[in-house]
Specification:
Jelly Rolls, six-stranded antiparallel beta sheet, mainly beta, seven-stranded antiparallel beta sheet, 4 helices, about 270 residues, 2 domains
Length: about 270
């Protein structure tokens, strides 16, 4: 038994017009995000998005559970990224390149020099990066990314390259780690390997490839979200295409053809 999630396609000024045709035909629109609407809405603990970037996204930070709940949100936001495609020179900004102060960061966000304080890291296909709550971060241009995150609409923008959107300097700097960040879960993912990528504290995330490792499926419990990263994926005998996501409870109904791959995620 599976439940197909509604696919939401979002145009963004930093999006792309060259989305791979496997995702669908978007008529030349500038697509930035493809995400999936859960029937539980805001109560769903996990959200999955595909991101397609042609420009740098805003420099931002997310609160942890404690800070988010104090601000009236149901949970904080920890997230992770798997790089599916990267143009030459593509990069992610994760943390700062040196220790700073909140006063210095505030001034740098106002004059734009915060861009030079970010730890910009070269990105390549297969990179897996964990973005803890409190990490000042940004996604650069030329990337196709699948993002798995705690489901909450809470982003504090610190700098947005002059785009006409609200900034949240006071709230953002209050929760930000004003220094370098390195996460021991960061790794490189072989497209043909089965591997557990996240084992809590907020969600589990497994990378599946043919032949599927049954020991990974044995760990999966509760409501599972299955997201193909290629063609050749099925659940309960039904094809699930790239650009789709489904809910299921029985992981043994998942099948992946040789050369195929997918993500499987569930709450911790």
């Amino acid at each position: 038994m599976l439940t197909r999630l509604e696919t939401i396609v979002v145009e963004k000024p930093w999006g792309r017009t060259d989305i791979p045709s496997d995702f669908g035909d978007f008529g030349g629109r500038r697509i930035g995000e493809i995400w999936f609407s859960h029937p539980a809405g805001d109560d769903a603990p996990i959200m999955i998005k595909f991101l397609f970037t042609s420009e740098r996204l805003s420099i931002q930070v997310h609160p942890d559970d404690t800070a988010a709940r104090a601000a009236g949100y149901p949970r904080g936001k920890e997230e992770c990224w798997l790089i599916l495609d990267a143009q030459p020179g593509a990069e992610l900004g994760i943390g700062l390149n040196r220790r700073s102060s909140r006063e210095e960061l505030h001034n740098a966000a106002l004059d734009g020099s915060i861009v030079d304080m970010i730890d910009w890291r070269q990105s390549k296909v297969g990179d897996f990066v964990c973005n803890r709550a409190g990490t000042i971060h940004a996604i650069g241009p030329g990337l196709t990314v699948v993002e798995v995150q705690q489901n909450v609409d809470c982003t504090y923008r610190l700098y947005d390259y002059g785009r006409p959107r609200e900034l949240h300097l006071d709230a953002g700097l209050k929760v930000a780690n004003p220094g370098p960040v390195h996460d021991e879960r960061d790794t490189e993912v072989d497209a043909h390997a089965n591997r557990m990528l996240m084992n809590g504290p907020h969600f589990h995330l497994a990378h599946l490839a043919a032949p599927i490792d049954p020991t990974l499926l044995e760990q999966a419990a509760g409501e599972l979200t299955f997201v193909p990263l290629s063609s050749g994926c099925r659940v309960a005998g039904e094809i699930v295409a790239l650009g789709e996501a489904v809910l299921l409870t029985d992981p043994t109904t998942i099948a992946i053809d040789e050369g195929g791959r997918a993500l499987l995620t569930w709450p911790a």
